[in-house]
Amino acid sequence: MIAYPSATTAIRRALWILLYAVLRAFRLEKILLPEMGDMRRVGSIHPVPDSPGSARQRVLFVSPRYWSTFTLFQVAVAQALIKRGADCAIATCGGVQPICEIDWRDKSLVPLCRRCTHSVLDLAKHAGIPASTVAEHVDTELTLAAEAEIGSADWEAIESFEWKGIALGRAAFGAARWKLRTHFPDRHPLGRETTLDFIRSGIRWTDGIGRILSKFQPDVVVMLNGVFQAERITAELASRMGSRLVFFENGRDRGTIFLSHQIPAPRYDVTGSWRSSAEIPLSLEEDKAIGELIGRRARGEDVVETYWGNGEGDGTPLKDVLNIPDVSRLAVLYTNVIWDTAMQDRDVVFGNMFEWISHTINLFASRPEWTLVIRVHPAETQLKARLSYDRVVDWIEEQFPDPPRNIRVVPPEQPVDSYDLMRLARIGLVYASTAGLELALHSVPVVVAGDAHYRGKGFTHDPVTRDDFNSMVTGFLNSAPRMSDDFVTNARRYAHLFFLRRTLPLAVVDLPTTDQPRLTYSDLKQLEVGENATLDIICDGILTGSEFVL
Q1: Which domains, and CATH codes, for the chain?
Q2: 22-75: pLDDT as tens digits
Q3: Which of 123, 125, 237, 429 is most buried, judging by how many CB atoms fall within 10 Å of its CB?
Q4: Which residues contact 301 (CB under 8 A, 6 or more apart)?
Q5: How many other C-beta atoms are found inside a 10 Å radius of the C-beta of residue 184?
Q6: Is the separation of the CB atoms in 507 and 45 below 8 Å?
Q7: What is the SS3 assignment for 42-61?
């Protein structure tokens, strides 16, 4: 559960900020943030001179917070776009928000705002990219009057709160989910306070970023994710002005990026690319690449997150570890981290993931000859900085104090290999997890209850009502489930598109094992057209709206 930073944390923050300030004064900030040294060595970019009749594309990069890899990516791409004749700028927060994804400023003895703002502005300055802050564009009198309108609103009024036509209550509710690591902010002890502060943040962000947009008049706005509150607000305001939107997010493999036009990146929408790829057979080399991809991901190589070492366990067969009496009648259900941005607005059949889990357990309770294994996502507890407040195991124990005997729950901390489960499964059940795509790659029939990015692509079973869900699952339980050859073929084609063509290398940023991002280029000439094919795709997509596809 989120708590106000302790005195010890405050002291550490103060020392870090003081040390960074001293190092900045002596131009030695690279000691703490090596990417600063990289950018300083590369040097400042200079605009390409206008040619007769040229019309510069104006691109605004919005980086509200200093998440180093993402901000470095934005600044580096801005340099590449300037090389191509674009006019680029960076906008960041500047400390105006009472709460954000990084810090709860109003509750912190030592807020991180100065550290965050200086890092963005310093990086932009070294790169030669004009930068401004939302803080310096906010009308304080106007925003304070708007904040007073919230008052002691109840939850219904909080969720429906709007200002300047922006649904700030809804955006704040989503932000509170991520901040508190819960799907139900209204049930969390800090939920109301957090959500109200996010509304206040939203008011100030709306006012300040609106003025920046009006001043810069961007043709394109490039932002992380698209679901976080600041970016969601910016997207709506920019769309009203007619600006195109480009969102980006981590790919599913380490050192990769997923970019999208208009649609938030966590949706991982590849519908347009799929239309032109679905009927094209894979070459032998492409099909081999998918085989290698499946093996690599199963071994945990080059993935974004790992939770324990390969081979952990005592060697006991998984069938025995989980007491599965008959693997020919095994269904595996994979959960998601419910508060994550990739899970927001994914509900199709059920109100939320927990309802789906309860419904599925009840369905299997009447079929004792089948075993249902529920693999809880390890990230619920294995990533210490992102411990979930709502946990699947707790939910199941609360809803089923005497659970059916054919249900097995694998808690997040148990080192059971999810890919070993895939190899044993006869049926796969997912909400919006990428595990559904990987189950299909293992030739396991999959029923998808949520709005996963691969839903409806020709290799999954996609109910739209609870009756659909019941009939699909029971249909598999009543027969020997088998995935058709067409489904397998479609799954492999889709995986090739999604993992190997629509997900791109970061191009301008390297992520070594230290997790300290570093530039991949040492000279601005390396950013020119033709020097890096992936960078050309990224820049062309931003400037012309073309697909981000290899």
Answers
A1: 281-503 (3.40.50.2000)
A2: 888 888 888 889 999 999 999 999 888 876 667 789 999 999 999 999 999 999
A3: 429
A4: none
A5: 16
A6: no
A7: HCCCCCCCCCCCCCCCEEEE
In whole angstroms, what is the distance from residue 355 CA to residue 263 CA?
Answer: 27
User: Whole-angstrom Cα distance, residue 129 to residue 78?
Assistant: 7
- The reported pLDDT for the residue numbered 53 is 66
- State how far the Cα of 132 lies from the Cα of 138, in Å rounded to an integer: 12
Can you spell out the DSSP letters for 210-234?
Answer: HHHHHHH--SEEEEE-S-SHHHHHH
Beta strand residue intervals within 3-114, DSSP E? 58-62, 87-92
Helix (H), strand (E) at residue 364 = helix 353-365
Q: How far is CA 98 from CA 135, 141, 203, 211, in A?
A: 12, 16, 11, 19
User: How many CB atoms sit inside 10 A of residue 326's CB?
Assistant: 11
CA distance 178 to 168: 15
Q: Rounded to whole angstroms, how far apart are CA atoms 387 and 293?
A: 29
Answer whether residue 326 shows pLDDT above 80.
yes
Q: How far apart are CA 493 and CA 366, in angstroms?
A: 37
Strands 330-334 and 220-224 come out as unpaired
Placement of tokens 């981590």 in the chain = 250
